[in-house]
Amino acid sequence: MARCRVLIRHLPAVEALGAATVICADKTGTLTQNRVRAMTVLPGAAAHPVPAGASEALAAHYEPMFLAEGLCHDLTEIEQGGRRTWQGDPMELALVDLAQQANVTLPRWKRIDELPFDGQRMRLSIVYASPQGHMLYCKGAAEPVLQLCTCTLADAGEQPLTQGMRDAVQGAQERMADTGLRVIALAYRPVEGGAAIQDAERDLIFAGLVGLEDPPHPEVPAAIEQCRQAGINVIMVTGDHPRTALAVARNIGLVRSANALVISGEQLRRLSDTPLQLTLDEPEVHFARLGAEQKTRIVEALKRKGHIVAVTGDGVNDAPALKSAHVGVTMGRSGTDVAKEAADVVVLDDNFPSIVAGIEEGRAVFDNIRKFLTYILAHNVPELVPYLAFDFFPIPLALTPIQMLALDMGTDSLTALGLGVETPEPDVMRRAHRVKDCSTGAWRYAPISSWVCWKRLR
Questions:
Q1: Looking at the 3D structure of the chain, how many domains does it have?
Q2: Which residues have a catalytic role annotated?
C-alpha cells in the first residue's frame, strides 16, 4: 500500500477500502491539482470579463478590487530563500499573486478584526486600520457577497448597484463557471471606528469577480473509468458553484450524459431523508455548495442504502464525514491534522488515482486471504483423516506428530505464504464489488471484516 502512495492508519481499513462501493470525492486537491491561478477578471459590474493578464491596465480605476485580493486572506508571511513570501491556501495565493501582477502596492495596515470563512457564510471579511479610517474587505462565493452589496465600482468611481447590474454579474459568473473556473467575488466598504464587524458586513461596494483555474490531475479520467468498470460509483461533493462542478466533472469523464443531476446545498436542505435516498439512485448525481453537516448527511444516506462508503476530505470541517464513513480518506500534503486524525487512510500524493490503486490492492489482499485459507483447509483436512481413522478403527498410526509437522513446514506453510503475497489478478478491477447487503448490520449478511460492520454500526 505504501508503494501505491497510500498510508493505512488502521490495518483492517485495507479490506474495507477494497470493499468500497461508493467514493464521495472532494474536487479541490483530490480530483484537481490544487494549483490555482487566476484566468479572468470582471472589474466591478462591467459587461464582460477580461483576461487576468490585463489586470495592470485596470489598476488605475479598480485599485480597491486588487486591495481586496491582496489583503483579504489568512496567509502566513514567511522567509524562504532570503526573501519574504506567502504560505497558505493556493486560492488565496493566486489572488495575492494577481494583485502583485497589477503592480498594486499592498500596504501593511494593522488588522483590526475578522469574520472567518465557514460553510454557512461562504465568505471572509477582514477590517484594517488604513490612514483614511477603518476599511472592511470581503471575499467569498458570488451569491452571498453580491446580496450584501448596494453599490459597485466603475470606471467613474462608485455608483448604485442596479438590478440590471446584478443580473449581468450573475450571468458573467455563470459563464465563467461553465468553463470550469472557480469564481470568487470581492467587495469592500469604509467602516466607522468602533463598529462591530458583524454590523459592518452590509451595504458593501461590489469590486468584481475573479475566475480561478484549478486543472485536474491528468490521470483522473483513467482512474474514474477504472472505478466504473469495478462497479464503484464516484460522487463529487464540493463547495464550489454547481456549474463549476458540472464542468469539471464533464472534463474528467465523471459525467457523460446530458441529464446529469447536480444538487446544491440549498436544494439539499429542502430534501427529506427519503427523497434524498431516491435521488442517490440516479446514475449520475453530484453535490455542490455543501456545508460540512450536509456531507455527513449524504454519507449516512448512502450507508442506509447498504453501500460501503469511502469519503475524501482534507479540511477541519470534513472530519465528521471522515468519521462517519466506512473508510475516511484524507490528503497527506494539504490535509489538516484534524482530518488526518479522523481518517483511516492518508493519500500521500493528494491524487485520486492513488485511492483507486489502494482499492485494487485492498481487493487483492482479500483475494489472497481467501486463497491462503482455501489452500490451508484443502491441505489440512486430508491430513486429519488418518488421525480420525486411528481413533475410531484398529489401524496403526500413519504418521507421527513430528513427521506431520515436518510435512506441514515443507509443503504447507511456505507455499501458503507465497499465495498471501501474490500480485493482483489482471481482472481484479473489472469485477463488481463483493458486498451485497450490510444494511442490517448483521454479520451473516456482510461477508467482510468486522472493521466494516463496526464502522457501519458505530
A1: 2
A2: 26
